[in-house]
Every structure is written in C-alpha cells, then in structure tokens.
Predict the 3D structure of the following.
Amino acid sequence: MSLSCPCNASTPYASCCQPLHEGQAVAGSAEALMRSRYSAYALGLRDYLLVSWHPDTRPDTLDLDDTPGLRWLGLDVKRHEDGGDGSAVVEFVARHRIGGGKANRLHEVSRFARVDGRWLYVDGEFK
C-alpha cells in the first residue's frame, strides 16, 4: 500500500510531492510548489522548505515546530492566481491538531516568484 500525499490524501505521495522533494521534478505552478511546501512541513523536510524559498526573503535557518503530538490534517487551496509576469498568489487553509486538542486553521495568502524557471515562495500574509 502506498503512502498518501499530505497535500491530497487521494493521491499517492510517490506521484505527487515526493519527486519535488527529492529534486527529480520542478513544480509546474505556484500552487504545486505551495502544496509541496505544505507536505514538506507535514513531513519535517526543512532542507526542501529552505531551497524552495526565495533567496531575498529566506531565513538563514528554519526551526520546524516539533511540538509533541502536532499533526497536519489537511490542505484546502482557496485560490491560485498566476500574474503572468513570473508572479503568483496562492490562498490556502491548512489544518493541524496538537494531541487530542481541537483542530486549528492556518489561513494564508502566499506570494510566489518564478526565478530561472523555478517557482519560489516569497512571503505570506495570515488572514
């Protein structure tokens, strides 16, 4: 049985975000990159998160939340707007839970830029 992808439970990880995480593929859209970044957070892939971040806004280090019992529950993409000029916006809601607590929502509007043929995360604003 194949592992399902954190960004879309109905899709196998091996045919969704895994090729991006392993550097075997390049995200074809800002939405695909955002989905792969959500999956990277869910899987604890710090290096992928840093390499997919625009160098102008990328932090020097990234501490992932290692709260015991933290579990990412799902992703809902609300909109994806390609600016046609190498920029894009993706609005999404990511849900997570800590232990047996209630689910929390992280609602963000993220900006992306295409640099040398690759989409990169620039920054985001929480709603």
